[in-house]
Structure formats: C-alpha cells, structure tokens
Amino acid sequence: MDEIRIYPDPVLIKKAIPVQNIDQKIKKVVDRMVNVMYANKGIGLAAPQIGILNQIIVVGLGRDWRVLINPEIVEGEGESVMEEGCLSLPNIEVPVKRMEKVFIRAWNLDGEEVSLELSNFLGRVYQHEIDHLRGILIIHHISRLRRELLIKRMIKDLKRSQERTVL
Ligand SMILES: [Zn+2]
Fold first, then answer.
1. Which of 38, 39, 102, 135 has its CA 20 to 30 A from that of 49?
2. pTM of this prediction?
3. Is 113 one of the annotated active-site residues of the chain?
4. How far is the CA of 137 from the centre of ligand 1 (A)?
C-alpha cells in the first residue's frame, strides 16, 4: 500500500503533467490511488498524493468511485466558503472559497472524453483534487501568516505522534 505524501513533501507543490495515453501503468496507478483513498477514508485523491506527477484524480462517495484523467475546469459560477481538510495535511481544517458550480472536461479510464456539471459539495471535492494537480493545497487559500502558524503546529503534532509510536 502506498503511503500518503504529507506536506511539506515537495511533490505536493509541483505541477502534474498530462497523461499521454492510458496504458496498463496508468491503470495500475489508478488502482493504487483508489486503495489508498479508501484505506484512509478519503473521498478524493490526486496522483501527486502518492508521489506520482500525472494528472489523475479519483473521487469516491460510498462504494462508487470515479476517475478523471487530465481534468480541466472549463467554466464555473457562484461561490461559497466551507471548511476543508486534506489527507496530506493531517489535522488541518481551513475555510476555502470555491465556485458553487463547475463544468469539467476530462477523459475517463477508457480514454473517452467526458463532461461533468458538478455543484455544491461534490463540485467542491473535484475542485480540491484538481487544485492538487496544479500544486495548490488548501493552505494556499489562506493568508501566509495563518498558513505558517498552522504548518508549524501540524509538524509539531506529527513529531509528537511519531515519538509516541517509537516508544
Ligand atoms: Zn487534498
């Protein structure tokens, strides 16, 4: 099982590159992503979160999951603010302003072009995952001062829990 990359892992702030063709290698990456997402009780995961810099996201609600290859937000409207967390930023929740409704174009796993219209919570999840492909995390949606404070606290917490595991 892959481990989730945790901030400040540099892979998380790099831009992912588009998938050229969907071969067995890419399908294996998708399997790994789905496994990691469910094992960590996430509702979405982007490939950089397991260290792979390709434009792939998975979103799963319940047992249904969907994979999007090279997703692109072509249009959006409205805005709303909601607290979000991220598997790569343990114990951090910050308010993130996002579009209320988005139109997304992508490929599915068969290489067919799909168009999606998503709103509210689900639209937010997809926007969060697509952000990952551009190296943008939820902490990039808040002020620098607040970001530095939260990260300092997160790293301290992580160190403390690692020490506990060692002992
Ligand atoms: Zn995330």
1. 102
2. 0.94
3. no
4. 6
